Protein 1
Amino acid sequence: MGSVPTSASHFAALPTAPRDEIFALLGEFRRDTHPQRVNLGAGVYCDNDGEPFPLDVVRTVEKSMNEKADPHRHDYTPIEGDQEFLALARKFVFGDACDESRLTSVQTVSGSGANHVGARFLANTIRPRRVWLSAPTWANHELIWATVGVPVHFYPYYNAETRALDFAAMVETLEKEAEANDVIVLHACAHNPTGLDPTKEQWIVLGELCQRKGIFPFFDNAYQGFASGDPSIDAWAIRHFAQLQPPIEMCVAQSFSKNLGLYGHRAGAFHVVATGEGCTPAAKDAVTANLAQIIRSEYSVSPRYGSDIVKAVLGNKDLTRKWQAELHTMAGRIIAMRVCLYEELRRLGTPGSWTHIIDQIGMFSYTGLTPPEVTYLKEKFHIYIHSSGRISIAGLNTKNVKYVAAAIHAVRSDPSLVTSA
Ligand code: LMR
C-alpha cells in the first residue's frame, strides 16, 4: 500500500534561499521615500539628476520601430537567435580579431543568461573539474556555476591592504593549482566589483598561461564601452586571446544591458571560439545544436525587443557613431564623478586613503567601506551600498556627491564603528 496522503505541504520544511543582495537593495531603495536617498547599489547608469538615462540613439530606434509597426515584430526568434543580431554582436566583440569560421553564437537572456547557458554547455561538454573565479567576483558567477554542478575555486585578485590587483598572487595560484580543461572566468573589462583590470602586459601573461596550461577562458563581457568609452579598447583582452598563436578555444558572454541601457530587455549573446583538430563545420553545428537544446529546455527563445534595437544601432553606421558618442558621455561622467568623490573626501580630510577611487575603472569602485559602515550609511543617510563596500559610481551626480562624501566622512569619523581605514 502506498503512503496515505496528508494535508502537510511539500514545502513546509523548505529551507529558505538567500535573496540576491543587489536586487534586494534596489527594492529597498525604491521603497525609501527620503528626499536625499542615494542608490549606489546596482550597476545602473543614471544621469546627473539621478534619473534613468534612455540613450538618444535607443529612443530614435524605438520611434522608428513604432512608426514602422512591422507585423512581425512580436514573432518568435529562432531558438539560436536572430542571425543578423548575432553577426553584429559578434563583430562588436571580436572586431577583425577572429575568423568567422571559428565562431559560433547564440542569442541569450542578456549577460546572466549567457553566463548560465555557457556554464551549462561547458559543464555538459568539456566537463571541467573546476571553474576558477576571481576573489571577489560578481555574486551571480558563483551561483551560476554551483547551479550547473562545477566545483568553484577562487583565484586571488584583490589585495585589501593595497586596494590593488594582486596579479602576482593570481598567477601563482593558477600556475600551481589550475589544470588543463579547467575553466577560468575573466571579466573582459571594468571588473565587477573591484573596478580593477589587468594591464595589457598582464593580459598577455594570462593569455600565455591559459594557452600553455590548456585552461579554458570564459570572458564575461558586460561593460564593453563603459570602462574607457571606447568599445574596441574595452575588447582588447578578448581580441588578444582570440588572436593567440597557436590558437586556443574560449568563449564570451555578452550583454547589452549597460552599454545600451537596455537593462530590462535582456539583450545578449554567447559566443564560442572553436579551433584545432576536428573543428569541422559539423562540429560547429553540434555546438550550436547543443546550445539550442539548453535554451529550448530553459526558456525556449530569447526576447527580441532589445535585440531588435541593438540590431538597428549596430547595423547603421550613423547610429553606431551616435551611440559611441553617448558611450563616451556616460564613461566620461563616471570618470568625472570618481574625481569629485575623491576630491571631496580629501577636502574633508576623511580618514583613510582614497586614491583607489580614481585608480579604478568602470561602473564600480570597491571603496573599502566595511559592512557596519555600509549599514550605518543606509540607516542614517539613506545611502544604499552593497555590503562588500562596492559603490556604483553611476549613482553619483553633482547634486549628491557632497552629501555622500560627508556621510562617508561621518561614518569614518565615528569611533563607535570599527573601520578598515
Ligand atoms: C550589478 O552587478 O549590479 C549588475 O550587474 C546587476 C546585476 O545583474 O547584478
Note: The first strand starts at residue 38 and ends at 39.
Protein 2
Amino acid sequence: MASLTLDAINTKVLKCEYAVRGEIVTLAQQLQQDLQANPGSHPFDEILYCNIGNPQSLGQQPITFFREVLALCDHPSILARSETEGLFSIDAIKRAQQILDQIPGKATGAYSHSQGIKGLRDTIAAGIEARDKFPADPNDIFLTDGASPAVHMMMQLLIGSEKDGIMCPIPQYPLYSASIALHGGTLVPYYLDEATGWGLEISELRKQLQAAKSWGINVRALVVINPGNPTGQVLAEGNQREIVDFCKEEGLVLLADEVYQENVYVADKKFHSFKKISRSMGYGEEDISIVSFQSVSKGYHGECGKRGGYMEVTGFRPEIREQIYKVASVNLCSNISGQILASLVMCPPKVGDDSYGSYSAEKDAILSSLARRAKTLEDALNSLEGVKCNKTEGAMYLFPRIHLPQKAIKAAEAAKTAPDAFYCRLLLNATGIVVVPGSGFGQVTGTWHFRCTILPQEEKIPAIVSRLTDFHKGFMDQYRD
Ligand code: DCS
C-alpha cells in the first residue's frame, strides 16, 4: 500500500464537503450500472438526474448561433470555404471573424492575457452597460473557467486564517461552504426566511455580523446568490438597496453571485445586478467593493462543460487589483472557448441580425419550458402530505420542506443517516429520481428539505410527478406517526 495516509493530508480538504455530487449521486451511479448490466433489476428503467444544474446532460440543446461562432473560431479554415455561407448564418461568420481578429495570431490554441482576451472583455463590458445602463470597464473583467474558479480566487484573496469570516446565506450553494473550508476561513451564516419565500432580512445580517465580531471574527465579505440557489427566490430591488447599504456601512465586500441572471420566471420580479443598484443609489467605486460573478453554465444556454464565466471587480484599490491580477496570472488564463462563449452570452444576436429569429426562438422556448416545469413540479410537491415548497421565481431548483414523521426520523437514526438523506435514498431506490438532501446546503436545525432541479425534459415531468407522488404516499403510509 502507498504510504500517504489520510491523517497526513491537508485537513482543510478533509473538512470540505460538496453534496451536489455526494453519496446519493454515488448510489445513483451504482444503480445505473446495475440497470445496464441487468435490465429490470430495479423498479424503474432509468435514473433521472435532478441533482445537478447541468441542462445539456438532460437533453437541452445548445443555442445554434453560439455553437456556430465557436466552431468557426476553432477551425478558421472553414471561413475560407465557399460553401460556408450556406451552412452558417451570416452574423455567426461575421462574429467569428471579428473575434479571431481580436486574438493575437488568430490562435484559439494560444494562452491569452490572464484576465482574458481584451476584445472579448470589451464586448462583455458593452453587454454589461447595455444591461445596466451604467458604465462598465473591460479592465474590471476577469474571464474564468466558469464562476467556480472566480469564487475560489476571491476566497483566496480574502481568507488568510480562520479569523477571516465570509457571510453566506443558509441554505447556500455548497461551492461557498466548500471554498471557505478549503481556504481555511470561517463561514458566518445568515438564514433566509422560508416563511417569507426565502426572504433576506437585514436584521438577520446585523445579528449574525455582531455575533461573528463578538467571537473575534473579522468579517470580510457578504455572499448574496441572486436568483437563489437552492432556494429559487429573486430579490426585490428595495431589498437589494438595503443589502448595498449594509455592505457599505459595514465595509464588507459584496460577492454577488449573479449566474442565474437570465433565469427569472415570474412577471413581477426582474433581475438587477448589484452594481447597477449601487450606481443607481449614487454610490461609486470609492463607496463599495462589489464582485459580480457570471457564468456560461446557466441561463438559457447551459454550456456547463465549456467552462466559461467572468467576474466584474469594482471598487477595489489599485494595489488590491494588482494582487487579484497576480492570482489570476498564476493560472495563466482561462480556456478560450469559454472566453468566447462568455462574450456571446453577454452580447447575443440583436434584432435585425441574421440569427436573431432562431436565437430568440431557441432562448424563449427553453426559458418558457423551464418556467412551466418549475410550476408543474412546485404544484405537485405542494399537493403532497407534509410538503411545502416555495415558488421557484428564478434559477433552476425547487427546495421543498418535508415534515418528516418521528417514526421516519427514528428509522433514519437507526440507519445512521440524516433524515433528509434517508428520504432521498429511499426515493432514489424506489423511483430512480436523484435529488440532493437539504443538509448539503444548510437548513434551520430540525427542518428537512431536498433540492430537485427543474431540468429534466418537459415530456419526462409527468412521470417524475407520478413516481414522486406514489413514493411519497407509500413513505407516509409506512412512517406516519
Ligand atoms: N454559483 C452558483 C449559484 C451555482 O449554482 C453554480 C453552479 C456556480 C456558481 C458555478 O458554476 P460554474 O462554475 O459552472 O460557472 N451550480 C451547481 C449546482 O448547484 N448544480 O450544478 C452546478
Note: The pocket of DCS is lined by residues 20, 52-54, 146-148, 173, 175, 225, 229, 257, 259, 295, 297, 304, 309 (CB under 6 Å).
